[in-house]
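Reviewer 2 asked us to include a model.

Predict the structure of this chain.
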Amino acid sequence: MRFALCLPWRVLTPEAKSVMDRLNRRSAMVDECLVWLGPESGGYGTIYAFGRPRGVHIAAWMAMIGPVPEGLELDHRCEQPLCWNVSHLQAVTHEENSRLVQARRHARWVEWPEVE
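Predicted model (structure tokens):
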């Protein structure tokens, strides 16, 4: 089953096509997330891609969009570190990524007052 589609203006190189084929073979669709079922490290899926081991989300981004811009990292808007759906990723600074993680963590633990 094929999960990810390339952006219409992006022509996949043979290496990018190989990465996408390997991602598709070892993934499952869960809600809207493309969840990696292969090896993990530190809670993130890992795959050998573009000359070295990488997070699957980074490999998918590189294959479908291009290199992660210098000084930025990828944030999972879906909060699922095994997801490699590029529509769930955004390139942000490390500071912004840390702030977003803390805000999401805080939002999960906030106790809302009862409405009378």
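The first strand starts at residue 27 and ends at 30. The beta strands are 27-30, 33-36, 40-41, 44-49, 52-55, 73-76, 89-92. We have added this to the supplementary material.
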